[in-house]
C-alpha cells in the first residue's frame, strides 16, 4: 500500500512538472512574439523618423530644394559647391536605404514596409540612377545587387 501511494505521488509530481514546463514554453513563445513585434515596430519607427527628417530638411531649406530641382533638370549646370551638397544629400539617403535594406534582410522590417523603400530605390523616374555609382562603395553587396537589378529592369524595357 505504501508503494502505491509513493508511485501515485511520483506520477502526480512528474505530471505537474511536465505541465509546468509546457506552460513555461507557452509563456516564452508569447513573450518572444511580443518582443519581435516590438522590435519590428521600433525599427520601422526609427527608419520613418530618419526619412521624415531627410524630407523635412530638404523641404525647409531653400538651398537644398533649389539644388535638388536643378539636379533633376540641369545637372551639368550645378556649381562645384552645389554638386558637393547634392552628393552629401544623396549619401544621407543611401545610408538610410542601406539601413532599411539591412533591417529587411534581418527580418526586423517586414516585406510590406520594405516595399515602401524599394519603390523609392527603384523609381525609374528618379534622377538617382545617374548618381548611384558615387555611393555604391558604402552599400552592402546585397543592396548593390538589388539596385543593379532595378537598373537592369529599366534598360530591358
Put the structure in a nutshell:
The protein has 157 residues and is mainly alpha-helical.
Protein topology:
Blueprint: H1 2-60, H2 62-74, H3 80-106, H4 111-121, H5 128-131, H6 141-155
Helix pairs in contact: 1-2, 1-3, 2-3, 3-4
| SS class | mainly alpha
- H and E order: HHHHHH
**Rg to the nearest angstrom?**
27 Å
Q: How many helical elements?
A: 6
β-strand percent reads under 5%
Please explain how this structure is put together:
This protein has 157 residues and is mostly helical. The chain has one domain. The protein is built from six helices and no strands. The protein has helices at residues 2-60, 62-74, 80-106, 111-121, 128-131, 141-155. Helix 1 packs antiparallel against helix 3 (80-106) and helix 3 (80-106) packs antiparallel against helix 4 (111-121). The longest helix is centred in the N-terminal third of the chain and has 59 residues, at 2-60. The termini are far apart. The model has no long low-confidence stretch (mean pLDDT 82).
Keywords:
157 residues; mainly alpha; 6 helices
Amino acid at each position: 500500500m505504501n508503494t502505491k501511494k509513493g508511485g501515485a505521488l511520483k506520477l502526480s509530481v512528474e505530471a505537474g512538472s511536465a505541465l509546468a514546463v509546457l506552460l513555461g514554453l507557452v509563456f516564452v513563445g508569447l513573450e518572444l512574439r511580443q518582443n519581435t513585434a516590438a522590435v519590428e515596430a521600433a525599427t520601422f519607427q526609427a527608419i520613418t523618423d530618419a526619412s521624415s527628417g531627410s524630407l523635412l530638411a530638404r523641404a525647409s531649406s531653400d538651398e537644398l530644394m533649389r539644388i535638388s530641382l536643378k539636379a533633376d533638370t540641369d545637372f551639368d549646370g550645378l556649381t562645384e559647391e552645389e554638386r558637393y551638397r547634392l552628393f552629401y544629400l544623396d549619401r544621407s539617403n543611401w545610408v538610410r536605404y542601406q539601413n532599411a535594406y539591412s533591417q529587411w534582410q534581418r527580418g526586423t522590417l517586414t516585406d510590406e514596409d520594405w516595399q515602401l523603400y524599394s519603390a523609392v530605390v527603384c523609381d525609374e523616374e528618379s534622377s538617382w540612377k545617374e548618381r548611384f555609382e558615387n555611393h555604391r562603395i558604402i552599400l552592402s553587396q546585397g543592396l548593390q545587387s538589388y539596385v543593379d537589378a532595378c537598373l537592369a529592369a529599366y534598360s530591358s524595357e
